[in-house]
Design brief:
heterodimer; A: mainly beta; five-stranded mixed beta barrel; 12% helix; disordered C terminus; B: alpha/beta; Peroxisomal Thiolase, Chain A, domain 1; 2 domains; two-stranded antiparallel ribbon; 14 helices
Chain lengths: 149, 388
């Protein structure tokens, strides 16, 4: 990812900054210039909003063939999360056995490394999510290698 | 509006075509389509090219001029246009040519689709495919294209009780059809059990649920129907065309287990010709993953929501069944070369409606549909074809 592009997205990526539409009283992530439900009537009524970073897992999958740049994380959990304010977001759920994540679980945002361009390239940071309550599992490494599918 | 017919077709074998370049693939299919139509290069008013990813995979943009040049169309300065909508590029290129002829701007167009996915590593081609979803908020967050479809499948399973066996039946059926298609990348049968036991890609999707990233090309010649008899006696009419968009990101949709753009594009195509789902004799569906074929058949209205899986398992979409789906082998077994796929689907329906599909011929096929979509169905394009 180019440096200007990453810099431009810092606010959104680091701090979950999106938009609040004062006209329809709805939240949007990522930032929108207008609310797609009401169109240009909402231009000028959108203000920046920092999401609390808490929400529920709507759906999830254990990724075994990792995304390019994510090989070191595999197998990992990708999820669609509904933030408490309403908008949905696609993110990785970390710090747990990926197979223990289930729809309905509460999650919260954390600041993590997303990847790097190369050994000497820039590091990318951003938001990932963790479970609010970690389910108890005996031996993390062992269960990881014996994921039932 | 004028009627538009397909008067010529051409297709390469799909697969790992390491000995052929993009321009060679394009020329090969373009020439066979022109020969099939009985036209010469002087008759061609315009060229449309469906290509998704030449910039990412070959560092070559401006594929329209490249194709016009290597197909020998630059002496006449034939206008050439590239159309891109991820895996729907081919279907969309067809629609642009269709509209230009129907609108009376031109009489004859060649529509080609071509893609080279195996000049780069598996990892690079997979990332290229995921560019059809939201790169910034899906791919970069770690979501592979398969993982997005895995969540679509998971959601369909939770809501409708769709089973592993039903998804495997899609793949197994498409491989069975491909075993009769000499142009298919994987022209052999695979059992349902083999699909169910293949390696896990992203739960619940397994390796044999997923279409490959292939090389390949296909082309068709479109002609104003009123002039088609000058060239051929076996013209196939495009009687319906529809297109629709949706949010680029899956997570912005209300339902994860639906693909509304497909349903709306199909509705528009049906409305443009006054036909209904029951009028169709066969369909080519964009089965980039097995779950996509299940959902697309529900969106088009062939089966009720939640019922497609069971009907597929019962054999209703198999050759000889009520409504054969993907007699070519589909994306899974014929192969999936994104820009070429939408055109390859049309080539299959034309062969079927002409009665030239050999062992996989659908008896008395009169009306066929082609459903082609891009990303997680953020673009969908549907055409309905009728034999004369």
């Amino acid at each position: 990812m180019s440096v200007p592009r990453f810099w431009r997205e810092l606010d959104t990526r680091y701090n979950l900054i999106g938009s609040y539409c004062k006209l329809t009283k709805t939240y949007h992530f990522p930032r929108r210039s207008f609310d797609p439900d009401v169109g240009r009537e909402s231009i000028g009524t959108m203000e920046d909003y920092q999401f609390k970073g808490t929400g529920d897992v709507i759906n999830c999958t254990v990724v075994h063939q990792a995304q390019t740049g994510y090989e070191m994380f595999g197998p990992y959990c990708m999820a669609i999360i509904k933030l408490d304010e309403g908008p949905k977001i696609t993110s990785q759920i970390v710090d747990c056995n990926p197979k223990t994540v289930k729809p309905g679980m509460k999650v919260k945002a954390v600041f993590r490394k997303l990847g790097e361009d190369s050994e000497s390239g820039i590091l990318h940071y951003g938001t990932k999510f963790i479970l609010k309550e970690i389910p108890q599992i005996e031996d993390d490494n062992e269960s990881l290698s014996n994921i039932e599918l | 509006m004028r009627d538009v017919s397909i008067i010529g077709i051409g297709i390469t074998k799909f697969g790992e075509l390491w000995d052929k370049s993009l321009r060679e693939l394009g020329l090969e299919t373009g020439l066979s389509a022109i020969n099939d139509a009985g036209i010469t290069s002087k008759d061609i008013d315009a060229l449309y090219i469906g290509n998704m990813a030449a910039g990412s995979t070959l560092q070559q943009e401006h594929v329209s001029a490249l194709m016009a040049d290597y197909c020998g169309l630059t002496n006449n300065h034939v206008p050439a246009t590239r159309v891109e909508a991820a895996s729907a590029s081919g279907g969309l290129a067809l629609r642009q040519a269709y509209m230009a002829i129907a609108g009376g701007f031109i009489d004859i167009a060649v529509v080609g689709g071509a893609e080279k996915m195996t000049d780069v590593s598996d990892s690079e081609s997979s990332y290229t495919v995921s560019m059809g979803s939201d790169e910034q908020w899906e791919s970069k967050a770690g979501a592979t294209f398969a993982s997005l479809h895995a969540m679509i499948a998971q959601s369909h399973i939770s809501e409708y009780g769709t089973t592993r066996e039903e998804m495997s039946a899609v793949s197994s059926k498409n491989h069975y059809h491909a075993s009769m298609n000499p142009m298919a990348q994987f022209p052999f049968k695979i059992s349902s059990e083999a699909v169910s036991n293949s390696g896990i890609v992203s739960s619940p999707l397994r390796m044999l649920d997923c279409a490959p990233n292939s090389d390949g090309a296909a082309a068709v010649v479109l002609c104003a129907s009123e002039k088609s008899s000058k060239y051929t006696k076996k013209a196939i009419k495009i009687i319906g065309s529809g297109q629709a968009s949706d949010t680029l990101s899956l997570h912005h949709r209300k339902y994860l287990n639906r693909m509304p753009a497909i349903g709306i594009a199909a509705k528009r195509a049906f409305e443009s010709c006054g036909k209904k789902p029951k009028d169709l004799d066969l369909i080519e569906i964009h089965d980039n993953f097995t779950i996509s074929e299940i959902i697309a058949l529900e969106e088009i209205g062939i089966f009720k929501r939640g019922e497609a899986g069971a009907k597929i398992l019962d054999g209703e979409t198999k050759l000889g069944g009520k409504i054969p789906v993907n007699t070519s082998g589909g994306l899974k077994a014929r192969g999936h070369a994104p820009g070429a796929t939408g055109i390859a689907q049309v080539v299959e329906i034309v062969q079927q409606l002409r009665g030239e599909a050999g062992d996989r011929q659908v008896k008395n096929a009169k009306i066929g549909m082609v459903e082609n979509h891009g990303g997680t169905a953020a673009t969908a394009v549907v055409h309905i074809l009728e034999g004369e």
